[in-house]
Amino acid sequence: MGTVELKNVWKIYDNQFEAVKGISATINDGEFISLLGPSGCGKTSTLRMIAGLEKISRGECLIDGIRVNDLDPGDRNVAMAFESYALYPHLSVFDNIAYPLRIRKVPQSEIAKQVDAVCESLGISEYKDQLPSSLSGGAQQRTGLARALVRPASVYLLDEVLSHLDAAERTMLRGEIRRVQKLMKLSALFVTHDQLEALAMSDRIIVMNNGELQQIGTPEEIYDTPENLFVAGFVGEPAMNIFSAERHRGSGQDILSIGGQEITVEELELPWIPDQEKFMIGIRPKNLLLDSAQNPGMLRGKVHTFEMLGEYTLVSVELASGELAFITADTGLHMSLDEPVAFSFKPEKVLFYDAETTSRIYLRK
Amino acid sequence: MSKYLEIRNLVKKYPKVKGLDDISFSCAEGSFTVLLGPSGAGKTTTVNIIAGILQETSGDILCRGASLRGIPPQDRKISMVFEDYALYPTFSVYENIASPLRARKLSQAEIDERVKHMANLLGIEGHLDKLPSQISGGQKQRTALARCLIHDADIYLLDEPIAHLDAKLRHRMRGEFKRIHKELGKTMIYVTHDYREALALADNIVVLNKGKIVQIGSPDELFSHPKTIFVATLLGEPPMNLLEFEDSNPVNGGIALIRKETRTIIKGVNPVSGKVILGFRDFTASLQQEADENFLEGTVYVSELVEDSRVFSIMVGDDLVKVLASRNLQLEINQHVYIKLDPQALHFFDGTTGERIATRL
């Protein structure tokens, strides 16, 4: 059993800085949730308030249904792993991992069994007798994770635990953390600034910026339908294209000007288009389709950059307005710089955003 | 002319280690050559010798047929940009870019025209009056590049010029580089450890490892026909899946691969025999529940969402391989699956030497 409920939680520091502004969210039992955002967005403050390492300024935090605002960290039944590993340098890997069991007076025979099991699942059995300083960063972080996972906790709080590792080790360990979490049905909150990690590992993602919650959803929802332009720009690499658009109606005409070009709404063949005069169009690079034909409903431009990147090719097209459209295509495509090209939108993948509020515009039914 | 710059049998010996071991390649006029390899491969040593700031032990460098041996760096008509920018802190961006031209006593009007052209090309025209301390890392790097490229040189040497930038800026500059090269039409040698930069920019890639050339080829050749396991795993993310088989032998219409008492039949490839390593990229295979032809067996280790696909890690024996699938595919951890292989997308390498074996029909 492990659930966390945040109810309108604020963190206001002594200098009046509002690090977290009214976050409400729930971690369900057995769920892996990522807190994703750029540095300074309030994600670590949020995690530290759940852990009890920061006081909650306003609002409530419930763990397993019990209000923990006034409980010490040790009384909250949470386990934590840190970016900096925070291992005891004079203790062996075994003793580091055994530490939380020893302070809870678990019998010696039981300690050995549990430490062995967690070492096995994190692939560090061979290092048990070594000191942390003799290990690679990856093995040290595995030790840090093992120390968190060795005892049953309501929720496991993982603070940027992959950030210090090299790319290969990071990719490897993120898969293993997810595997262990799923097999053991653990509830986990994972803080990261890396959108790739959040998409790869999570059941749901909480996106934060400037202390405010931007969106909560499954990785698919966050990737497919970002709720505002911040999420749209933060998740996905190469980033989502954002074009400004203006709709002109009158005297039998219904025209959209986009990228310095005027296209009739009819020719665009989109399922719907917002009524308002000014808005933004968001579409991912893989949902723009390059075409050698130049049909009336297409945007036209010339190739600005062309990059074969192995599994795919990245093309940027300079539009009449000077804006760049980024398009990913299959390999095997060859284009010259400055070559004229046209492309269309995958109609069902087009998103609309309000130019003022940056929020997503929905079809009004 | 195809051999504008020719590197012949370059050797660099250090007291304890060999720096370069018989490096030979050539660059056509106006071409973009990338030296690609991990740290310690000899990339920087090679360009430093070309620049003349490091002395070769033996070998020769010819530019337009004439040896550069004995010619001091400043007389080589080679311009170089360094990873750490090396800007003059008290000079404006404009004066930093203009400094090579000032040394040559060009007229103010000509200097002005050329500095502005270069600043435009690199997108720093709005920062010409600022000091290096007042601009961002990306702008400093562009300033250093502009100063390098404003020289009238025969060869431009670019040693990890964008390695210090953050990922977003690096990706943007990577695309811009090709435009800059096209615009200037100069012969450039670019050093990187990032395979995507190499694929995106190069006419020709020279892959180096431990002071030796491993393969020379176009981006397409290197990605689709890596000559060794080293090249196969250097290019691609995730790296190419590799599985070692203790033995193999021809069977009717294909080959049998043997590892730890399991026998895998691959049809539609030329025969191989003995110890081999099978390689395939994650997007060339698929997962299915039934066995038919050309498959491997395994169990699901974990799955991850990658943009709008799902990447499955599959445990095959004691090895993990990755397979790209539709993100709608739902498989449980430890579930048994078959990996369907495409014979035309398989790579075979000699189990002992790691060299490529031609198997495609």
Structure notes:
The complex is a heterodimer of chains A (365) and B (361). Chain A has 365 residues and is α+β, with helices and mostly antiparallel strands. Helices cover 24% and strands 33% of the residues of chain A. Chain A contains 9 helices and 20 strands. In chain A, the strands form 4 sheets. In chain A, strands 6-7-8-3-9-10 form a 6-stranded mixed β-sheet, sandwiched between helices. In chain A, α2 (93-102) packs across α3 and α3 crosses α4 (137-149). The longest helix of chain A is centred in the middle third of the chain and has 18 residues, at 167-184. Chain A is elongated, with a radius of gyration of 25 Å. The two termini of chain A are 41 Å apart. The mean pLDDT of chain A is 95. Chain B is of the alpha+beta class and 361 residues long. Chain B is built from 8 helices and 22 strands. Chain B has helices spanning 43-51, 93-103, 108-121, 137-149, 167-184, 195-201, 219-224, 229-234; strands at 5-13, 18-27, 32-36, 58-63, 66-67, 78-81, 155-159, 187-192, 204-209, 212-217, 241-245, 247-251, 254-259, 262-267, 276-280, 286-288, 295-306, 309-316, 319-326, 336-340, 347-350, 356-357. In chain B, the strands form 5 sheets. Chain B has a 6-stranded mixed β-sheet with strand order 6-7-8-3-9-10, with helices on both faces. A 5-stranded antiparallel β-sheet of chain B has the order 16-20-17-18-19, with no helix packed on it. A 4-stranded antiparallel β-sheet of chain B has the order 2-1-4-5, with helices on one face. In chain B, a hairpin with a 5-residue loop joins β21 and β22 (356-357). The longest helix of chain B has 18 residues, at 167-184. Chain B is elongated, with a radius of gyration of 25 Å. Classes of the chains: A alpha+beta (365), B alpha+beta (361).
